[in-house]
Amino acid sequence: QVELVESGGDLVQAGGSLRLSCVGSGRTFGSIAVGWFRQAPGKEREFVAGINWNGGNSDLASSVFGRFMVSRDNDRNIVYLQMNSLRAEDTAVYYCAADRRAFRAVVLRTPSEYLYWGQGTQVTVSS
Fold it and tell me: What is the per-residue burial (b if ≥16 Cβ within 10 Å, else e) of 37-58?
C-alpha cells in the first residue's frame, strides 16, 4: 500500500514558477516509478512527467519539455515537479501517481499503469 499527498499548488502569474511535491508513505515508495498527471476542466487526464524508481530515467510531455523538471529524493520519500515559465494552459489539477509495478526501468505515460493516486493540487496560472 502506498499513500501519496501532493502539495505546492497555487495561483501564479504567467511566466512564474511553482514546485509541486509528492510525499509518499510505505516502504515500497523508493522502488516505484512516480508520474505526474494533470486534468483541466472538461479535458482528459494527461501525462505531464515521470521519474523511475531510482531517478535514473525520466520523461516529460512535449508540452512541458524545457519548462518542467521532475526529480526525487528517496531518502525523504518525495518526488518534485519544478514548473517554470508557466502558461495559462498549464492550469489544472495536478496529481502524482505510483506505478503498479516495482523497479520498472522506464516511465509509462498511461494512467492505467499507475495504481495509487494522490488527491491532487490545484495550479492556476493567470494570464
Answer: bbeeeeeeeebbbbbbbeeeeb
